[in-house]
Amino acid sequence: MHVKPKATMNMENGDAEGQEQAFLLKNSTYGSIVGPFGPLEDRVLEWSPEKRFGTCDSKGDFAHFVRSRRLVLVFHELSMTGAPISMMELATELLSCGATITAVVLSKKGGLMSELARRRIKVIEDRADFSFKTAMKADLVIAGSAVCASWTDQYIAHFPAGGSQIAWWIMENRREYFDRSKHVLHRVKMLMFLSELQSKQWLNWCQEENIKLRSQPSIVPLAVNDELAFVAGIPCSLNTPLASPEKMIEKRRLLRDAVRKEMGLKDSDMLVMSLSSINAGKGQLLLLESVNLMIDQDPLGTGSQVKKTLDIRLDESALARKHHLRGLVKKSCNADASCTNLVFDSRRKQEQAVKILIGSVGSKSNKGVGETFGRVTVEAMAFGVPVLGTDGGGTKEIVEQNVSGLFHPMGRAGNWLLAENLRYMLKNPTARKQMGKDGRKQVGKRYLKRHMYGRLVEVLTRCMRRQVASSRSLIGF
């Protein structure tokens, strides 16, 4: 579907968002557009998370510890991405458990400001003196990204003792983020990481730079929140006699069937989803190339047409390549009017197809450069979706090879094996279903809300405990 714009864009500011919108106005390569599915979800599930502001276990250790505490949470931005959303959910949980929360937002980029207001999370407009004074009065400051280094550095310069009240939850795993934060890592009370692999990587970098941390870092992986667990049919605090896990599993099945029908999917179709922002580091193009390899090895009627759409010129700008990915959905569709995004008809006698959904599931594909943790991966597993993941980053700590998913090497070198894994998933629906079941079990054992907050309360206890050793006692790694 392509709708012509009613008005032209003013590009005087020349900002990236304006450039992107201008590109959209000139682009006519959109295919089918499906969703949003919010109204359908509300109707089938008869429940909406917007009706709730928190799911605190009032009798738990976390609630007991944070009640009446004052905390400042530092957001590096407000985009609809992992770190800001995780920090927003943490703030919501703290509020519902009786803590006083103030948010410091370093960049208002993104669309979460209205959601923070809806959840009654107080945001300080000032990012300097007033935020420093507020932090000085807090029991603890939690910074939610390596990008918070600038604020942390300025705060400690303003209040030298302030480092002893900062817990820094670092959610990135690229060297560039280490380099921009390394000058202040040793000045905070504690570092928190999402995975063992991420922690080891950062500690190795610290050793290379001769950085001595004040305490042993902690591992606090992200988790499936109660709202998502509830819809997935996993026992949680939101269950009631009328909304038991068993009843929610049945409603989820009805919702899945309704959504697949609206998307034009048959029962025999396999949907492969890549859910992330569209950029080179997330690997959407590599996924498309892998599908093309699968077609070459098992020729299909649409193969030549698909191959043509994958031929992206190297001299195109990053913005053009980004929108070329979005544009692939129209060019790659066959003549079927119900085609949703990329459609490849495989073995037409069986009337089976692979459907590739890019952008915004039979299988969830992770083709990034090695995720730090991969919360979306855990959420997919909660719904019984098998994972096709890279064998780098935190994904290997979440997914078990040949049990809850299949691995392939990172980067373009992994395309061939991903193509093989896609073919295996397509031709073995029973194995696909079993992997989904096993992944769901893993989530229930390791990645629910109670697991994350159980670890987090241990960290908060250590951070708020009065220091016994001299501040000159440093731990080197």
UniProtKB/TrEMBL annotation:
<feature type="domain" description="Glycosyl transferase family 1">
    <location>
        <begin position="365"/>
        <end position="442"/>
    </location>
</feature>
<keyword id="KW-0808">Transferase</keyword>
<protein>
    <recommendedName>
        <fullName>Glycosyl transferase family 1 domain-containing protein</fullName>
    </recommendedName>
</protein>
<dbReference type="GO" id="GO:0016757">
    <property type="term" value="F:glycosyltransferase activity"/>
</dbReference>
<dbReference type="InterPro" id="IPR041693">
    <property type="entry name" value="Glyco_trans_4_5"/>
</dbReference>
<keyword id="KW-0328">Glycosyltransferase</keyword>
<dbReference type="InterPro" id="IPR001296">
    <property type="entry name" value="Glyco_trans_1"/>
</dbReference>
<dbReference type="Pfam" id="PF16994">
    <property type="entry name" value="Glyco_trans_4_5"/>
</dbReference>
<dbReference type="Pfam" id="PF00534">
    <property type="entry name" value="Glycos_transf_1"/>
</dbReference>
